[in-house]
Design goal:
Order of helices and strands: HEEEEHHHHHEHHHEHEEHHEEEEH
CATH superfamily of the largest domain: DD-peptidase/beta-lactamase superfamily
Number of domains: 2
CATH architecture of the largest domain: 3-Layer(aba) Sandwich
Helix content: 40-55%
CATH topology of the largest domain: Beta-lactamase
Strand content: 5-15%
Structural class: alpha+beta
Largest sheet: 5 strands, antiparallel
Bound molecules: 6-diazenyl-5-OXO-L-norleucine
Radius of gyration: 18 Å
Strand order of the largest sheet: 3-2-11-10-9
Number of strands: 12
Shape: globular
CATH class of the largest domain: Alpha Beta
């Protein structure tokens, strides 16, 4: 790959000043904003390339919604999961449920807005039967799809999410009150807060992106982990909803399925080419990494990765 990643990082890092580290989850507020890292899984050459703050651990946050969706599909099947959660774009903030009230919706818009993600996680907590170990299942699956046996739950972040998670609590109780959620609210929220507090690196995310880009097959051992259909459906949803109400803008600017997290992470899947993980914790108003998106945009241009070209 003919790219000077270190020079690119140096050029783009100052953009972080245009954003702010998430502070509505207090444990995230102390993260140093002056960081930018990237890891690529190059499917053709079977190698991982890393630069900048690529080895720093950070909270996976909303990127866990991709993994929980894949796990729910693996357990229950695509049809069943999308009976409970929609696949529509959003024009609202990631933690809004406003449209549900206004449109008398029967299910959340999609699995990536918080209300939809809480719904998906609740399906793992209880489908027909109560699952005694929902988080252990999600953690094990995250280790596998990220090829990262060392990733772990950060208890401080989890407790901080739990303590300040009243908006998420209101979304979950709304689903319960409207009979959309079968599982109990508190265990569902608890599992959701925990999945958001898993600590990953850009390399873990590059591996996740690589499985999606490689049609559901883990490129490091050539074993299928998820169905081709679930990889395709998930990439489509990342394109239309992965960056919330900025998804349309970045579909135009980048054209690669991408999911963000308020920990500053981005995962992208460039089909049959690359899995990409990026980290830079300062966020724009929509909750997406400012320098991270700038780096992604620059790389997509340089490597000609827009899937619509
Ligand atoms: O539930 C929350 O608000 C956070 N744990 C996750 C939100 C998030 O990452 C939104 N993504 N950009």
């Amino acid at each position: 790959m003919n790219l000077d990643l270190n020079a690119l990082i140096e050029e783009i890092l100052p953009k972080q000043k245009e954003g702010k580290v998430a502070s509505y989850i207090p444990a995230l507020a102390s993260v140093d904003p002056n960081q930018l890292g990237i890891a690529f899984y190059d499917l053709k050459n079977q190698q991982i390339i890393q630069a900048g703050d690529s080895k720093t651990r950070f909270a996976i946050e909303s990127i866990s919604k991709v993994i929980a969706l894949l796990w729910a599909i693996k357990k229950l099947g695509i049809q069943e999961v999308f009976t409970y959660v929609g696949s529509r774009q959003t024009g609202f903030a990631f933690n809004s449920a406003l449209n549900m009230e206004i449109t008398h919706a029967k299910k959340p818009l999609n699995p990536f807005v918080n209300v939809g993600a809480i719904m998906t996680t609740s399906l793992i907590v209880q489908d027909k039967e109560i699952n005694p170990h929902p988080f252990a299942e999600i953690l094990a699956f995250t280790k596998e799809i990220c090829n990262d046996p060392d990733l772990y739950l950060d208890t401080q972040i989890y407790l901080s999410e739990k303590e300040t998670g009243d908006l998420n609590r209101s979304l979950a109780y709304y689903l319960k009150a409207k009979n959309m959620m079968i599982a109990k609210v508190e265990p569902s929220l608890d599992t959701y807060f925990k999945q958001c507090s898993i600590m990953v690196t850009t390399k873990s995310l590059a591996n996740l992106g690589a499985v999606l880009a490689n049609d559901g097959i883990k490129p490091w051992d050539n074993q299928r982990l998820i169905s081709s259909e679930s990889a395709t459906v998930t990439k489509s949803l990342m394109m239309t909803a992965g960056l919330y109400n900025q998804s349309g803008t970045y579909s135009r600017l980048i054209g690669v399925p991408t999911k963000s997290g308020v920990g500053g992470g981005l995962v992208s899947a460039a089909p049959h080419k690359f899995g990409i993980g990026i980290f830079s914790p300062a966020l724009n108003d929509e909750g997406n990494s400012v320098a991270g998106l700038a780096l992604l945009q620059s790389i997509v241009d340089k490597l000609d990765l827009n899937i619509f070209k």
